Amino acid sequence: MKAAQLYGYKQDYVIEEVPDPVPGPGEVVVKVLGSGVCHSDLHFWDGSMAILPLPPFPWILGHENAGYVHALGPGASGFEVGEPVAVFGGWGCGTCKFCLGGEEQLCNVMLWSGLGVPGGYAEYINVPSTRHLVPIGGLDPVLAAPLTDACLTPYRAVKKVLPALVPGSVALIFGVGGLGHLGLQLLKKLTPAKVIVVDPLEQKRKLAIELGADLVIDPTSKNVVLEARQFTNGEGAEGVLDFVGSDSTMSSAMGSVARRGKVVIVGLAGGSAPVSFYSSSPEAEVTSSYWGSRNELVEVVALAQSGAIDVRIEKHHLSNINEVFARLQRGEIDGRAVLMPNE
Fold it and tell me: Are strands 237-242 and 257-265 parallel, antiparallel or unpaired?
């Protein structure tokens, strides 16, 4: 099969032929119609993210995948060959308390699609169990691929602030990229809150307005904390979602959260902010949100099937992967870039 292989940090991907995967007992091979290009893949590409015990090069990345069931291994059941599916990528050991509780993405094994085993930047991907598949019905697999992370991750983060987002409340989000543009839509769909969006790029702020943001802030020319406090009559935002995770966004998040509000850190920029009794509003909480569960992916797919969310994508042939990564580095991707290995 054709695959995009990475032979070292910051190197160009090489498109070449590799052996087709053969499913073992209980496994399933999926023909990849769409594989989303996540910002975390950029961090793995440049070596700045080392949260997994990664194998030796070469790697086939790609953890946002959807397509059709291609082959079932002995004993694999629950799906038919040719069935359209999304692939839940947070594969765990299957036996620990997190896996047994339906939270495999929190498993210490972290045998993730494309992050430890070959991923979806290839024509086919081998999935260790049919329990990692979610039927997508009539959804276009190319559009469904980003649901597995770009929508699943903000969905879990939004759920963490839902109790605080009552009528009259305000949510604040940093970043309107692949995750942020869907987080904004989820906030507008699932809550009555007004939403403030912070992004330094004009085209991203325009997208935020198009998607229903009540206020957009350019952090390069405005003081985010002052603007957010003014919009909320001094109270701050009850829910703050940081899809960037830099020093500056985390500092602004801490300064903008309301009393008993919640800051949820989602972005992987590696920033930090000092925490003390005086660093944010009284009894504000700070937490992180880590991908999402397979059950939450089922909920996300249902939202997409209902038309509640508009996944903005750019379609690209697998051969364009190096150009896509270069544009992602420069912040030029609107929404999510999706590679199509079988086109």
Answer: parallel
Alpha-carbon distance of 116 to 111, in angstroms, equals 6
User: How far is residue 175's CA from residue 241's CA, in Å, rounded to a whole number?
Assistant: 9
Average pLDDT over residues 92-115: 89
Task: Write down the pLDDT at residue 279.
Answer: 84
pLDDT digits (tens, 9 = 90+) for 208-251: 999 999 999 999 999 999 999 999 999 999 999 999 999 999 99
Exposure string over 290-324, b if 16+ CB within 10 A, otherwise e: ebbbbebbebbbebbeeeebebbbbebebebbeeb
Domains of the chain: 2-149+292-340 (3.90.180.10), 152-288 (3.40.50.720)
Q: What is the CA radius of gyration of the chain?
A: 20
Peptide bond into 58 cis (omega under 30): yes
- Cβ atoms within 10 Å, residue 163: 10
Please enumerate, as own/partner, the contacts of 104-110 that have beta carbons within 8 Å and a separation of 24 or more: 104/293, 104/294, 105/290, 105/291, 105/292, 105/293, 106/290, 110/51, 110/52, 110/53
Question: How many whole angstroms separate alpha carbon 152 and alpha carbon 299?
Answer: 9
Parallel, antiparallel or unpaired: strands 84-87 and 64-72: antiparallel
CB 337 within 8 A of CB 313: yes
Q: For the segment 300-310, what is each residue's pLDDT rounded down to a tens digit?
A: 999 999 999 99
Against a cut of 0.90, is the pTM above it?
A: yes
Q: What is the mean pLDDT of residues 58-68?
A: 97
- Cα 318 from chain centroid (whole Å): 20
